[in-house]
Amino acid sequence: MKQLLLLGGMLILLSSYACRSRKAMSSPPPAPTGAMEEEAAPLEPFEGRLIYKTKFEDPTNASGGGGVRMLMGNKSVYSIKGARYKSQMNGMFKMMQLYAGGDTLYSQMRGMNGVFWEDARQNPDSLIEWSIEKDVTTIMGLSCHVMTIKAKEGFYQHYYHPSIPADPRLHARHRYGFWAFFIEKTRSLPLKTVLKDGELNVEMEVTDIQRMQLDPAEFAIPAGARIEGVE
User: pTM of the entire structure?
Assistant: First the structure.
């Protein structure tokens, strides 16, 4: 599993922030009986930056304890405009992930001219169950709900508040990492994400919310970069 690519996105994580090599297509999972959904449609989608503090742990200790934290860093800057987003981390890898709003996720690491791409429409994981709980914790003064996703290969929790809205129509093609599914059910961006998959534990929590208009040029592929597919 190519963990670092997902961790760059939120979400994606992170998305993220853990990119897998398998390419099996997966349809958006159906809602199980009894699960709750957000009822209100989003207003204007959030535009600006979300600054996260990040924490990475290797439960297998394969990286020697602090190795993964040094490589990935302790801060992520997530910029979003409409369907487009970019995530940048401050570790030694300087991991960047870019989604331009279409079918493709791009990622790049420090010192590499190549930009790797992944089909965002594909989700190699499969859903077991999901749920939403209301008002479970407070983040930056906001009483947040949590969506929990239990999948075949991992466990996800996204904490969110409706005041940081997202439009499901803009993210419908981004099935990778259950992102479209999360946005469809919550109509919000995550303020905190917890990911556990047996190989890596990730926690990201927002420390600053910056509403602003962003230049579309921020979401362009770096000039002169070589585009390569993920094997």
Answer: 0.79
